[in-house]
Specification:
2 copies of one chain form a homodimer. With 302 residues, chain A is mostly helical. The first copy, chain A, contains 14 helices and 2 strands. Chain A is globular, with a radius of gyration of 18 Å. The first copy, chain A, starts with 10 loop residues before the first helix and ends in a 5-residue tail after the last helix.
C-alpha cells in the first residue's frame, strides 16, 4: 500500500485505489462462511458490498496521510466506519423508517432478506465495527484506541447519527424550519464524516491543532456532502441515483433545496467547500487528497 | 460501595444492593434531558428501567469481587452489558422478530414509542454501551479495556448473541432438534452471560487460570439460566412473568422442555448448577455471591 499520495494523482485514481484497499479489507474481516452464520453474514455482506463510495474510510485514510501517517494503520478503523454507515442505511431503509425498496439501484436489505434479518444484520454490523476498533495496530497506543472508540460511539449514538435519524423521522410530513434541517444534517451525516477524519488524525498521532483544523474541515465537508445529496435527489434521474427521484420531497423530507431553493443551496455548498479548503490551508501537499475530496463535493454527480 | 460481600450476606440482600448501584449508575450515564434528545432518551430509559433483574451487571461485579477486585472499577462495563441486553430485548420484541406486546408486564418499547423509535432506541443503547466501555477506570490498563471491548463485541455480534437470534428466528414453526436448541441458547443467552463474568475478571486483573474457571462457570450458569427461563415459560402464570404464558410453545419456539420434557430439563439444569459450583470450587469466600447466584438458577420463580 502506498503511504503518501503523489501530487499528480487524480481524485478518481486516489478513490479507486483506496476503495480497492477498503473492499479487500472488508472482505477479509467478514469472509463468506458456511454453517449457522452464513445467512446473517450474507445479509451483512450484501449491503456492505452494494456499491458504496467508501467516502468515510477514504476520508479517514486521507486524514491520516495528511499528517504523515499510513493508511494501513487506520484501515481497521476505516472499515469500522463503513460498517457503521452501512448499518445506518439498512435500518433507515426499513418500513418503520424511510420505507425504501431500493438503494443504489438494488433492493434494500429487508426486501432481500426480510425485516427481521435486516434489523439483525444492522445490529451485527454495528457490533462488528466496535470489534474492529478494538483491534488497534501495534504502532497505535491503546489509549488512542480507546479515544477513537469513545469519539466514534458519541458521533454514532443518540447525540449524533441516531439523534439525527430520530429528528428526520419526526420531521416527515411536518413543516420544518432551517434550524431543524441543520440539526438533522449535522447529526445524521456530518457527525460520522467528521469523526472519520478525526479518527484518521488521532490514529496518525495528530496534535490538537491538527485535530481542530481537520474537524473544521470535516464539519464543512460533511454538511456540503449532505446538501449535494439533497440537490442530487431533486435533480437526478433514477437511473443515475438508483432510487426514486424526488422521493425525499414526495414524503415532505427536510432538505436544503426544499427550504431555500436549489440556487441558494448550491451557493451554500460552494461556500462550505471554500471554507473547508481554507481550514486545511496550512497543511502541505500530503493533504492534497483531502482538498480534491472537498472540491469533488461541489461537482458530485452521484 | 462495599468492596467484598461478607459471608453472611443473603442473595436477596446482595442482589438488592448491587441492583441499586447499577440503577443509580445507569441513571447517571443516561440522565433525562430536554431538547431534541428527550424522545430517544425517554425510549432508551423506558426499557432500561422496566424492571430488569440486572443479572449481567451483578455477575460482572460478583466476578470482579471473587478475584479481590472492586465492583466500582467494573461498574461502567457492568452498565454497558445491561445496555446491550436491553437493546437485544427491544429488537427481539419487534413485530419482525418475536412480535411481543408485553415484557415484564409492561408494553414493549415499540408498543409505547412506535417501531421506528424502538429500533433506534436499541441502536442507541448498543452504541452507548461501547461508549461506556471506552471509559475505563484509571486503575485499568487501556490494553485490558480494549480486550474487554473485543470480547464483548464478539459475544454480542453475529458469532454470538445476534447469531443466536437469527437461529431463533429461523427456528419458529420449524421442527428443531436438540443441537439447534443448544445453538440458540448458547449463542442468544449464554454468550453474553459468560462474557459478563469474563469482563469482570479481566478488569479485576484475573490470570488465565481464573479466566478459564470463571468462563466454565459462566457457560453453565448461562445455559442453566436459559433452561430455567424455558421452564418458567411453560409453568408460570402471566401475572408472575409478565408475558403470555406458553407463548414460546404457542409459536413453536425452540425450548428444552419442548424437546426433552419438564423433568429432564430440570435435571439438566441442576446438573449444570452443580458443575458451575465445582468450576469455582478453589475460589475462597469472596466467590460466595457467585455460588449463591448459581444455586438461585435452580430455584428461580421469575
Amino acid at each position: 500500500m502506498e503511504g503518501v499520495a503523489s501530487l499528480s494523482i487524480s481524485l478518481d485514481e486516489y478513490r479507486e485505489e483506496k476503495k480497492r484497499v477498503v473492499d479487500r479489507a472488508l472482505d477479509g474481516y467478514l469472509p463468506e462462511q458456511g454453517g449457522m452464520s452464513s445467512e446473517i453474514l450474507g445479509a451483512m455482506r450484501y449491503s456492505l458490498f452494494a456499491g458504496g463510495k467508501r467516502l468515510r474510510p477514504i476520508l479517514c485514510m486521507a486524514s491520516a496521510e495528511a499528517l504523515g501517517g499510513s493508511a494501513e494503520i487506520v484501515l481497521p478503523a476505516a472499515c469500522a466506519l463503513e460498517m457503521i454507515h452501512t448499518y445506518s442505511l439498512i435500518h433507515d431503509d426499513l418500513p418503520a423508517m424511510d420505507d425504501d425498496d431500493y438503494r443504489r439501484g438494488k433492493p434494500t436489505n429487508h426486501k432481500m432478506f426480510g425485516e427481521g434479518i435486516a434489523i439483525l444484520a444492522g445490529d451485527a454490523l454495528l457490533t462488528e465495527a466496535f470489534y474492529l476498533l478494538s483491534m488497534t495496530h501495534p504502532r497505535v497506543s491503546p489509549e488512542t484506541g480507546l479515544t477513537v472508540i469513545r469519539e466514534i460511539a458519541t458521533a454514532a449514538g443518540f447525540q449524533g447519527m441516531v439523534g439525527g435519524q430520530v429528528a428526520d423521522l419526526r420531521a416527515e410530513g411536518e413543516a420544518v424550519d432551517m434550524e431543524r434541517v441543520r440539526f438533522i444534517h449535522t447529526h445524521k451525516t456530518q457527525a460520522l464524516i467528521t469523526v472519520s477524519i478525526r479518527a484518521g488524525a488521532l490514529l496518525a498521532g495528530g496534535g490538537s491543532d491538527d485535530l481542530d483544523a481537520l474537524s473544521a474541515y470535516g464539519d464543512k465537508v460533511g454538511l456540503a456532502f449532505q446538501i449535494a445529496d439533497d440537490l442530487l435527489n431533486v435533480e437526478s434521474s433514477r437511473a443515475v441515483l438508483g432510487k426514486d427521484v424526488g422521493s425525499d420531497k414526495g414524503r415532505g423530507k427536510a432538505t436544503y433545496p426544499a427550504l431555500i431553493g436549489i440556487d441558494r443551496s448550491r451557493t451554500e455548498m460552494r461556500r462550505l467547500v471554500e471554507g473547508a479548503l481554507a481550514d486545511i490551508d496550512r497543511f502541505d501537499k500530503k493533504a492534497e487528497p483531502l482538498r480534491l475530496i472537498a472540491r469533488f463535493m461541489a461537482e458530485r454527480k452521484s
